[in-house]
Amino acid sequence: MAANTAAPILNSSTAGTSFSAYYEVDERVAARQAVVLADERWRSLCTQHASTFVAAERRSASIRGALRELLNEIEGKAKPCVKRVGRALDPNYANVPAVGGGVDGVEGEGKRRDDDDGDEHIQPASVLLADLAEKHRLRRRTLMQHSSLIELLELPSLMDACVRSSLYEDALSIAGFANTLERRHLLEHGGSGGQQPQAQTNEKSNDNKNNDVVAGVVFEIRRREADLRRMLIHRLRQDVTMPQCLEVVTALRRLNGVELERRNNSKSIGGGGGVASAPTSSDHDLEGVHAAMEMRLQVDFLEARDSWLEGGVNKVGSAQAVAVVVSPMPSSASGDKSSGTSAQAEQILDGIEQYRTRCFEIVTQFLAIFRGSFAATSVASDNHDHSFSLLSMWIARRIQSFLTTLSSNMATHINDTATLRDALDAASFFASSMGRVGADFQPLLGPIFEPRLSDMIVRHWNDGLNGMMETLKACRDAGIAGPLFGTETSTNADGNHGSENHDSSVEMMLSSRTPAPPRKLLAVPALARFLNVYLSGLNELRRCLLPGAFPAIRSAQSKLIADAKMALQANERSVLTPGLRGEAARLREVASKMKSEFDQCLEPYMTGCLEVALGSVDYAMAEAKAGERARVEAEKAKAEKEAAERVKAEAIALEKAEAKAAEQAIKQAIEKAKLEEALANETAEATEKDAVSEVGHTLEQNEISFVDNPTPSLQNESDFFDDGEDMYGSD
């Protein structure tokens, strides 16, 4: 089955050779790819170090040119000397007269002219040999001082090595030694007065010719001084600590001292003869030059540190940095938005913190280094004021640049009041920190943050108004009124429940001073949603409340209310247009209801909420009075309720007592009746017994009398009883 599904690539006869060729092809491709990668790597390295290669090539070309010029100069100067010496030592050439004479005069003159080729007159051999011996002695003496001369000639390269190795002390020592060389060998003949001007001029020209080497060394050292100054200033453009900064400024001051010494040497040498003159103008000039150099040093210091400051905070808070932070994280739209917001906030806060740290560090370094720089001068107050004015101008420029950058970043990246509050806290801390050096700029933060706060609030409100207008337009176009109607929930169904809600609302108003939203707006969902968005905009003020933005917020609310009224009026006019399709009657009804509810309920509530959010004193006092009156009325109603309950309880207790007393009386009456009945029963029984006994006795008597008188007449029944007695013997 596997053989049927997979088609064979090679047959069995050519399998080995094909596989070997296949692997050979793979190795060639891999080798070719490795060569291409190596070539690309080589090209990238060449591009990366192109400046070094160009500098090395230029230096090698300059060295080759200098050596070629030196060789040509040596050949040009040595060849005539060798030729002249050879002619002087040639006896045949020396015996030829200078001007043609004798038999061979014409021929000798022609030969002399052909051999001289315009050279000067050949001196005798003795004189020429003496001159050569003197020059040889001079060169031997020079050769004995070879090591010292080598050290002298290596001073420029030694200073260059010191500059590159940051050995400032050694480099400055070499620069000072160059001033000594210049004073001893180049300027010592400039001020000597003389009475032989021609001889003095010749001697000066010879000295200048002999001191070309020293002049070249001094010139190269001056060039290294410029390199040293550039390197020191470049060091200030980096992150340096206070000791390092003090070291660099000290080196720059010593370099200025070397320059002043050179100027002083040139002035003193060029001033005239050997008699010392009163240092009137030169000293004052040097003081002015020193003050100018010190001022220039301060300017260079601030410019270098300013470059360091800008290099550290140049891209903080920019869109590029935010994109770099957000782009590597793939997520949903909401996640990108939240991560972008947090990244923007972090960028802005980091920028403010770095700006604060670096500005304060620069100001501290400047004050620590240059505070007493002019204390020893005769007019120290003016120069000291100039120093501080320079620092003040720099601080003002940096603060203005910071505020401009902060304003642009806020308009671009800050979209919520939480970030705005954090940025305000960081900027306020920056301003208070600069206040310790007399540069507090907190009043300048208000015009930047207050408009941004009002813009955020107005943006929320405008979103709510646009949403309401879109809802009204959609319902009007569709001809449906269902989304515009809602169920009105009222909490005042009965008296008790309404009083409880009233008490709770009073307590809430007294505790938070924020009125509760009117619940009858639930019957109009469009206005309810508009109110919710309005309240969410006011909730932003809880995070960052700036009093300077109150007028703008109040005017924005007035415009919002006017725009909302115009929108409701336009909606009412639109639904009153004849030919409206759909639920026209309900749309007209809800349009009129929305307009009346906005005027009667929503607008006063919005005004009250705004005043509560802004903490208005008048509104707070009015609300406090209203709350106090409500509290008094609530306490009075509570006291009346308690009194009524107490009276009712007393009445109930009295009724219970009376009922209990009546019950006791009834019980006593029942018991008395029972006792009387028992006594009556006993009396009746006794009477009955007496009556029975009397009747029996009477019957007995009657029987006896009947026996005696069998037909007696019966008497009335009343004859058996008395007039005042009944049959039971009771009254």
From TrEMBL:
Keywords: Golgi apparatus, Membrane, Protein transport, Transport. This is Conserved oligomeric Golgi complex subunit 8. Residues 719-731 have a biased composition (Acidic residues). One of its GO terms (cellular component) is Golgi membrane. Belongs to the COG8 family. It comes from Cyclostephanos tholiformis. It is a peripheral membrane protein. It is found in: Golgi apparatus membrane. It comes from the Eukaryota. Pfam families: Dor1. The keyword Transport applies.
